[in-house]
Amino acid sequence: MSVSIDTVGIIANPSSGKDIRRLVAFATTVDNQGKVNILRRALVGLGRAGIKRVVYMPDSHQMVQRASEGLGHIRIPLPSLEPLDMPVTSRSEDSALAANLLRGMGVGCMIVLGGDGTVRAVSKGCGKVPLLAVSTGTNNVLPEFVEGTIAGLASGYIATGQVPLAEGARRHKWLEFRRNGSEADRALVDIAVLHGQFTGARAIWDVSDMLQVLVTRADPANIGISAIAAMVHQLATDDPRALVLEIDPTAETSVMAAFGPGLIGRVGIAGARWLREGEAIRLPERRPLMLALDGEREQVLRAGDEGEFVLHTDGPWLVDASRTMRYAAAQLALCLPGFD
Fold it and tell me: What's the pTM?
């Protein structure tokens, strides 16, 4: 498959940042007009970086098309826009399908607007195509709060090779969930194992039913399930391990963590262990179990189901906008006479 270095893909999730945590907590909301404005600035940045063509995931709110409106006064070349030929179902499967189609077209980079759940869905189809994830979701460990113009410039520099991939991006770990011996799903940041089988609004805002937590990264400055692990041990993105916690509200040891926006509580920790690359760990025997992958309840294990998790280090390439822009600036730095 050849790579189109002058082509960037865009996957913008119109549903990100709209889950129940806006009601039960104090989650930030980025409405679709805000996403349109981010996309508009990204298109300008892409044009300046030399991108000729943008292929995008269609959505019911027509966000990319709306973003292109009002750019007639811009006196720089702007990329042409081309929607993917795919159905619009307004489900996470749209993002996974769009990523797979964009990968097949050989785009040089993908800009993703959403939260951890959106990036997780895209990771199922993107392969080795680098992702620049812009935070517009509720819990955001993976996506960055990147200004749209910078997102366009940075992804354009990566796609065109002006910034080498190894200088501006890093591969992320991922956790494979296997049901009865076969891969069933994945998570990039964290998996929470909960008692019961009630999916409900999918997002987690109550940890009382939590039995186990697995994380690939843990920073106490983040919020979400990984923040619980961070209060036990911090875990860097380039550390080739995952951290597994056994949760028990009656445990003698507990930590206080921000497990959601405006949601802070104590969580009992009964035990902890490391999970290394390629190593598998079995789920608790209790049934039924609900698995929340990157903050969203999605998988259920019922009586007779066997489940395990395996850690991998060959996940998606995630573009770091700051690193990319610093590298680009260093290559373009002026040498002024008399200035040191």
Answer: 0.90
Chain centroid to CA 123? 8
Q: String of b and e for 24-37 (b: at least 16 CB within 10 Å)? A: bbebeebebeebbb
Cα separations in angstroms, 250 against 245, 266, 290, 309, 321 = 14, 11, 21, 25, 43
- CATH value at residue 285: 2.60.200.30
Range of the domain at 198: 174-312
Q: Exposure string (b/e) for 122-146, b if CB count within 10 Å is 16 or more?
A: bbbbbeebbbbbbbbbbbbbbbbeb
Count of structural domains, the chain: 2
Round to whole Å and give the CA distance between 287 and 195: 7
Which residue in 200, 207, 214 sits closest to 259, CA to CA?
207
Residue with the two structure tokens 């049901």? 179
For residue 288, is the peptide bond before it cis, meaning its omega torsion is within 30 degrees of 0?
A: yes
Q: Give me the phi and psi of 302, to 5 degrees please.
A: -110, 180
The predicted-structure confidence for 140-156, as pLDDT tens digits, reads as follows 788 989 999 999 999 99
Report whether 230 contacts 220 (CB < 8 A).
Answer: yes
pLDDT tens, 308-332? 999 999 999 999 999 999 999 998 7
Same domain, 209 and 306: yes
Say if 339 falls within a structural domain. no
DSSP-derived pairing of the beta strands 174-179 and 182-187: antiparallel
